[in-house]
UniProtKB/TrEMBL annotation:
This is Glucose-6-phosphate 1-dehydrogenase. Substrate binds at residues 215, 219, 253, 272, 375. The keyword Oxidoreductase applies. Residues 226-521 form the Glucose-6-phosphate dehydrogenase C-terminal domain.
Length: 523
């Protein structure tokens, strides 16, 4: 590791290692972290993720000056393309989806480092060509043997691609250089398959060369959970079971499954989102203060939370699953899940999932964490709401506090990024009446700099070899351990409860909170 850092200039002046502080580039704009000479090889380069997120993120990084002059980008795919045709495809998607304005000079330079290699994953000859192309980039572009392989492909293709990388010599690093592999979720579909996947990749790459993407961890607002909790005095003293009634973690989407039937059907909302994004959000919300922001210290704290999770005894009462039926998205009529193109009309896949989890620690004993996610809900919103207990005594007439709800700290992950504090305030007038009000911090109003896309941050971190924002295989396994019994229970239930598109999910979701004396927030 040490030699590869030196090779790519990753150790900063004063011996400070950038991965010791994941908040650094948000905090210290005078010292932007710039990747060293390297290339990114994308498998699955014509897929949706690559078109909408990866290629635009690479361009945005280049445009922000965070990629080195000697950067290469290699697309690997089945299309019969020349490099120029690949570059035209990349340009079209960059123009359509990048965050920063299109700049001809940036593009020209990026394009000079682009290559396309045509091939199938099981074609040894194609990998030989890839190896040759990588060497040419080393020679002509100065990428110095540093290459990251992005597996934007279905997990069933991981074994063959890993083997090809190994047998073509591409996984091998020369002294002073590095090879890294980036794996997209889903990391398996249960604990056993996740372990198998890990074994396969582990045969080819060392653990510290494997970067698992959970793109929620790349979001500014998610990293801000650490800043909010551990840079301030006012939140942490009340962040525990003495004051907190319950926590609601929501990731709601208004869109349906789009063109992703092949991926989504049989996977469902819980495996797609709860197993990764929502459990990571829960771990960051519930964990103790880490010794430092180094990857190992963060992992240690997240692992403790995930290990302390207890499932409800009665999964029927404390979980909910639903499937959207025809309804509305805004003013547009939309079809139900079973009518979506490519979906088995008898599919029992859930498009909505909600679960209650408890964290058996002194800090959180008796505080339920409710996690919910769904497609075709009323609105696109992701948030973490820490809802507080009522004050033990209210020295007012009963009528004065009729309108007073529970205090809450709401971390607004997206789309309106920021934090809301909800508390009671006196309404103006001669009577003492208290009503809920909101105090808002908004990224848009407080900062002039727009937040980078999650994939910008994560691709940059891979090129820098900076691991804190990537879940470890241990975290992934623990997350499957939590989800597997729920999936097993649901598998015996048959058809999920329908909910109309554009509403907030199945009735069971409301019943499950009502059973605990709570109700879902309406974001
Ligand atoms: C992905 C899921 O991980 O996150 C998708 O596979 C989902 O189903 C997407 O639509 C949402 O991401 P974001 O960043 O828009 O909340």
């Amino acid at each position: 590791m040490a030699s590869s850092q030196a090779a790519s200039g990753e150790t900063e002046p004063g011996g400070h290692k950038p991965w010791e502080n994941p908040l650094m580039d948000a905090r210290d704009l005078r010292m932007p972290r710039i990747a060293g000479p390297s290339s990114l090889v994308i498998f699955g380069v014509t897929g949706d993720l690559s078109k909408k997120k990866l290629l635009p993120a690479v361009y945005d990084l280049a445009n922000r000056g965070l990629l080195p002059a000697s950067f290469g980008l290699i697309g690997f795919g089945r299309r019969d393309w020349t490099t120029d045709e690949f570059a035209a495809f990349a340009e079209e998607n960059v123009r359509a989806h990048s965050r920063t304005p299109f700049n001809e000079a940036t593009w020209r330079h990026l394009k000079e480092g682009m290559r396309f290699v045509k091939g199938n994953f099981d074609d040894a000859e194609a990998f030989r060509k890839l190896s040759q192309t990588v060497s040419e980039l080393d020679r002509d572009r100065g990428t110095r043997g540093n290459h990251a392989f992005y597996m934007s492909i279905p997990p069933k293709a991981f074994p063959v691609v890993s083997e090809q990388l190994a047998s073509s010599g591409l996984a091998h690093s020369d002294p002073g250089a590095w090879k890294r592999v980036i794996i997209e979720k889903p990391f398996g579909h249960d604990l056993a398959s996740a372990k198998e996947l890990d074994r396969v990749v582990g045969e080819v790459f060392e653990p510290d060369s494997v970067f698992r993407i959970d793109h929620y961890l790349g979001k500014e607002t998610v990293q801000n959970i650490l800043a909010l909790r551990f840079a301030n005095m006012m939140f942490e003293p009340v962040w525990n079971a003495n004051y907190v009634s319950h926590v609601q973690i929501t990731m709601a989407e208004d869109m349906g499954i789009g063109g992703r039937a092949g991926y989504y059907d049989g996977i469902g909302a819980a495996r797609d989102v709860i197993q990764n994004h929502l459990l990571q959000l829960m771990a960051l919300t519930a964990m103790e203060e880490p010794v430092s922001f180094a990857a190992s210290d963060l992992t240690a704290e997240k692992t403790k939370v995930l290990s302390a999770v207890r499932l409800p005894k009665d999964l029927g009462a404390h979980t909910a699953r639903g499937q959207y039926s025809a309804g509305w998205q805004g003013s547009q009529p939309v079809v139900g899940y079973l009518e979506e193109q490519g979906i088995d009309p008898k599919s029992t896949t859930e498009t909505y999932a909600a679960i209650r989890l408890d964290v058996d620690t002194r800090r959180w004993a008796g505080v339920p964490f409710y996690l919910r996610t769904g497609k075709r809900l009323g609105k696109r919103v992701s948030e973490i709401a820490v809802v507080f207990k009522r004050a033990p005594h209210l020295p007012f007439d009963a009528t004065a506090t009729r309108e007073l709800g529970a205090n809450a700290v709401v971390i607004r992950v997206q789309p309106d990024e920021g934090v809301t504090l909800r508390f009671g305030a006196k309404t103006p007038g001669s009577a003492m009446e208290v009503r809920d009000v909101n105090m808002d911090f908004s990224y848009g109003r407080s900062f002039t700099e727009a937040s980078p896309e999650a994939y910008e941050r994560l691709i940059l971190d891979v090129l820098l070899g900076d691991p804190p924002l990537f879940p470890t295989s241990g975290e992934v396994d623990l997350s499957w351990k939590i989800l597997d019994p729920i999936e097993e229970y649901w598998a015996g239930l048959g058809q999920p409860e329908p909910y109309r598109a554009g509403t907030w999910g199945p009735a069971q979701a409301d019943r499950m909170l009502a059973a605990d004396g709570h109700h879902w927030r309406m974001p």
